[in-house]
Amino acid sequence: MSSPKPPAAEGGEHLSGPGRLVGRSAELALLDGFFGSAAVRGRALMLTGEAGVGKSALLDAAARRAEDKAFQVLRVTGSQVEAGVGFAALDQILRPLTTEIAELAPWQARTLRAVRAVGGLPDGRQAELLAVAGSVQVLLSRKAARGGPVAIVIDDVAWLDRPSAVVLGTVARCTHGAPVALLAACRTGDESFLSGTGIPAHEVRPLDETAAHDLVAGRFPAMAPRVRQRLVAEAAGNPLALLELPATLDEAQRQERGPLPAVLPLPERLKKVFAVRVEALPKRTRELLLLAVLDGSGGLHILERALGGGDVLAELGPAEQAGLVRVDTATGRLAFRHPLTRSAVMELSTAAARRRGHLALAREFPAGSEIRARHLADAAVGPDDEVAALLHEVAYRTLRRGDAVGAVSTLLRAADLSGTGTARGRLLAEAACLGANVTGDLRNVHALLGSARLADPVGSGSLAAATAAASRLVNGEGDVDTAHRLLTGAIRDHAAGPRETGTIRDHAAGPRETGTIRDHAAGPRETGTIRDHAAGPRGAGVDILDEALLTLLVMCFHSGRPELWKVFDAEAAKAQVRSPDDLLCVLRSAFGDPAHAAPAVLELLDGLVAKLHRETDPRRIVRTAVAAAYVDRLPGCRSALRRVVDDGRDGGAITMAIEAFFLLANDAYLSGQWGDLPNLTDEGLRWCARYDYRLTAQPGRFLRGLLAAAQGDTATARRTADRLVAWGNPRGLGLLRVYAAHIRALSALGEADFESAYRHLRSVITPGEIPAHLPHALWLFLDFAEAAARTGRHGEAAAHVAAVRGAGIPAVSPRLAMMTDAAEAVAAPDAVDHELFRRAVDTPDAERWPFEWARIRLAYGERLRRARAGAEARGHLDAALGTFRRLGAGPWSARAANELRASGIPVGVPVGTAAYEAGRPAPLTPQELQVARLAATGLTNKQIAARLFLSPRTVAGHLSNAFPKLNVTSRAGLRDALTGLAPERTA
Fold first, then answer.
1. Which of 23, 683, 772, 931 could make an S-S bridge to 593, C-beta 3.0–4.6 Å?
2. Dist. CA 58–CA 64, nearest whole Å
3. How far is 951 from 241, CA to CA, in rounded Å?
4. What is the pTM of this model?
5. Contacting residues for 605 by C-beta, under 8 A, at least 6 apart
6. Average pLDDT rounded to a whole number, residues 187-205
7. For the segment 844-865, what is each residue's pLDDT rounded down to a tens digit?
């Protein structure tokens, strides 16, 4: 028999699926062990933890698991109402045991019946309590003997009446005499009559971040990820808070279509948990805590100044004693022990008190400061164009600092404070623009632009609105033509109209208001336009113009059409007069036309890459990396791109993070880190699907298809290429046709189907031309040279290589120089151009691009074997085979293996056999070993050359010979290979 289950208490609902607790596997395992041992020899355990942490949910789960283990479960719940009623809690145990009580010895039965009778037994005498405890123990022992082990589950121990607590404490100490388990729960720090009984305790900790996300996602699956991230941060792992806080948000806020409050409000259940101790504090202490919440920095010196004197530490004493805050006098900082205590402080304050607090804090910061502007905004009652103008500037400072979501929220708040429809409409349009291009809010663009049109029907064609709409069209639907017409028209109108200064104050319709909220802040009056407070020469108008032009550049890139590039160049040339930023110029050249990038542009790009470790703006990080992609500067962008990815995972600049994923995947492909590429593209593609970035997904699909082609997954490669063409052709996206041709050609080359490879490449390449509108041509010229030469079209191959050299492509990067030498060597009919091949193979640090390097060594080995230079061919073919195998490039491994077999080298024979030794690479020479050991320490070829008095080219040659002998493809593997090197492997 089990007593009735009490109502669910705080935190008792953190389930995901029927009866399954989220994130409590360790606690459930502990409880299983507890009941397992209690069934043999009784035990007692007290669960402790903060309010709402899920103790009640664990007790419910424990009761179910105990029943599954054949325990007879008796439930007790302490009640504040009945805390003064003697034996009220004990009666919950005795009520279902009426039959068993009648079977006890008469005096024991009378004792327990008296306990149950109203006023039947005085509750103050220890002797009588011991008699009751003894009778209860006998009762439980007999029940266990007849029906199996007994489990007593007690919730809210602090509210047990004193007599019941004394009796149950006695039972808990003596459970070892019978198979009786007593499991209780109380809040950390609560005193109860069971506290001094010596019962073992286990603290129930808050959920970890992963479990917290799972809990909220399971209960609120439609909630936007960034909103969920905010709730998880505020709840600090408290299950009750995780489940109750969403109730304070409306549907728009849950879907991220509306801004979240700075401090989340508390629902009624959480108020009871977190507000009760705040209410008990002195008024002065509550005022100080309110200032601390509004300030948010935790600095005691700010609170002291804003409070206007007094002993801050003394005033904080009651809150510290109540366990609500921590005060560190060494660092001069205050911290709330739980984030929701901040919410409780806000809930208990009045609007007037909060306004006074914000104004007091605003006085502590200089005019023009971001913190001052935010406090003035929070103190505003109704429209205030002056404060809105300040927030407008703050939004772009926030964006450059790396907080894209904060920038959009600030623009929305500025819109709320704007007193005219013109200013409000413009700010909403800018928020939509940044949302589409930076934070991943493509779905919200339509709603924001609709609100902007309602606010300002005349100004609905602003540059910001056009950029947002165009971004939505091109990123969401891939409609390049419509987006291009819309955006170019807006850019031209913008250039022809009054120059935007970045201040919304210029668009206010009425006379300048006086007596605004800043007059109450008693600080210097802010004057002039937003530029007066800018950290640099850039203003919001320039930012939006840059966004417009960069959106236009994306359209041109994906279209692959020269006529669109001409329009871009004309508009960008005009814009350069107004924008002091070099990045747009660098992007147009290094990304839009890398084959003809001027050395001065590459020098500018190198400078931008070198500064990325200090860059915080995710837009500049990603766009610098985009400029670096085709000209082989991506390795210098890796760490900065990973920061952008981490920011996106934390709910930050989602659009930028998607691009960062694919840029890192691009780098992984070129650098031979092929194991990383699927994870990077998969995560990026999932985000594209979640946020409707359909065009943005195409580079990720291309890279997956290219990897599939290289590794011999022909079905995936073909399916990916077909999908790219099917989606791109109706939309006029020429780049996707080029992507598909690249995938198909690489797949054909791996299978040695050179005619098919030529046909695919010829569909997008004109021999002897490196067009300015086709940046992807830099990825194709070696493939084309090989396909054309192997099908007897040596003239076309040679013409194309000549065009590559004529464009100066070898000067762009060492990798492109290596590939140009190889392409020219491959294009030569019949004869082996040793100089070109060796120059390509000996390119300094060529192992950084293992797939291309291995392909070049395979091509050289093929030529050497056909020229009957088998001994020399074997070293190159063996090195190529080893690299292809490590990359998982199956078709290319087969090509290399076939060439080795044709040269008389057995492939795949057992180690140690005579056949293996006959075909085994030669041991390292002393010079190769010396060079390899220095390279393993991290020295560059130039540094090794200086130390050994050799040329860098000689060092590169020694390393290229050592790599295949040591079965490695890069310097990263040298240390391990040399550590395990047997003595006979050196000459």
1. 772
2. 10
3. 67
4. 0.74
5. 586, 590, 624, 627, 628, 631, 633
6. 77
7. 989 899 999 999 999 999 999 8
